[in-house]
From TrEMBL:
Residues 210-243 are annotated as: Disordered. Residues 8-152, 158-319 form the DUF8155 domain. Transmembrane segments: none annotated. This is Peptidase family M23. It holds the Pfam family DUF8155.
Amino acid sequence: MTDATVSLPADVVERYEKFSRFNSPYPAHDRGRAVDLYPGDGVGRSPVSGTVREVRTVGCPDRPYAAAEDHLIVVDLADEWCARAGAPPGTVARILHVIPEVDPGDRVAVGDALGPTTRSGFFGQWVDDHVHLGFRPPGANPLRASGSLPVAADVPVEPVAWDGTGAVVERGPTHVVLDGPRRAAGADRSFAALASDEGVPLDGGLTHYAGGGTFEADEGAPTTGDAEEGASATRDAEEGASAADGTTLSLLGTKVGTVRADDTDAGAPRVEWAAVDVRANGRRVTGLSLFAARGDRFGVKVVCPDREFEIGESVTLDIVPSDDPIRLGVG
């Protein structure tokens, strides 16, 4: 029997600045059974409504940039929320990366502050603070690290073309954010993501995590972007494309992966990344951190712990086949 898919309603997802289902090395994300929701302001707001069942402090990998512990908030979901999300009554939500300011027995509604987000050793230094959300079926042990239900997000994502060039607008210890790709003039606050050459919006760590994914494209909107050369296939796309099993995806003229729709538990298909390297100004970097984002927060994040770029510096990315691609694990 196939597990029921929990589909986050659009008005829940739209409370956050960004979201991603595949931008993580952990198995739950790789199988489409968790979603990361990025609030953008350091407040861990609840994406669900129900009653807090349990709050627990857990250990996490030792990282010099991270807190020594993380936290798990378990919520018994309200029947009304389950009905909206297509989840069976009795489904339980698991929320991580929030320092709890709620207690067992507290009732929470969508948008309520659960506490501040925390820098956790469960995610890389280049990853912004976020709310990790997963679901367990009725009767399952909510404290185990495995066994979550498939998760989908009921929002379309605009695919945005890009020619691989941009200027640095943000710099962190292990990453930079570029000002490209640019959305079309007058773009609204809907979600957008980097498009493959075929017009498919991409999700995940390209290609430093073994697998990535795609978003459900907004089929009613044209593929937009500022690419002038080197991405004519994307430029010519008239509508956002859907990804079928076995479809080859390319970016900046190079094959980057193959869609494995039959190897995904729910929602948008998984992508098996090809053996490639991402290069910035001719030198290899770790990869691209991809997600769906709204408004002016949209921009490609380049993971580059061994490189330094200045604010305003021009960067040109290219992708080339590799005999030894970077793959980051969970250890």
